[in-house]
Design a protein that fits this description.
Layout lengths: L3 E7 L3 E7 L5 E2 L13 E2 L9 H14 L4 E5 L10 H11 L3 E4 L4 H7 L8
Parallel strand pairs: 2-5, 3-4, 5-6
Antiparallel strand pairs: 1-2
């Protein structure tokens, strides 16, 4: 599996299964405190980095091996830069009722550039 990691223990989220939706160090920012280091790919517009179907297939395998408390959309950079995020959230919802966490700093997500109502707000 190349896009699913964990599960890992989290004080906030319990046992968390991570989903990495973009290539390493891809972000709109270059925060000094970023846990993945300096941003090497600065972009503003979302792109279809990882297809929703690929995430769904990997998630099905991961969920057959463990039952996390949370599925966390995060990883190597800014997850909302994947233009398929809405489809990915919908496919997770089809597979399980496990809560979904989104770790993001994306301003346009809050300005209406993110998932539709009912998907993660």
């Amino acid at each position: 599996m190349t896009h699913i990691f964990g599960p890992v223990p989290s004080r906030r989220l319990g046992l968390s299964l991570g989903v990495d939706l973009i290539p390493p160090k891809t972000c709109t920012y270059d925060c000094l405190y970023c846990e993945v280091g300096r941003t090497t790919c600065h972009i503003v517009n979302a792109e279809p980095f990882v297809p929703a179907s690929e995430i769904a297939d990997e998630l099905e395998i991961a969920l057959s091996k463990s039952r996390p408390d949370t599925i966390t959309l995060a990883g190597s950079g800014e997850p909302t830069l994947n233009s398929e995020i809405e489809k990915i959230i919908a496919s997770i919802r089809k597979q399980t009722n496990i809560k979904i966490a989104l770790l993001t700093k994306r301003l346009t997500f809050l300005e209406g550039g993110g998932p539709s109502e009912g998907h993660g707000r």
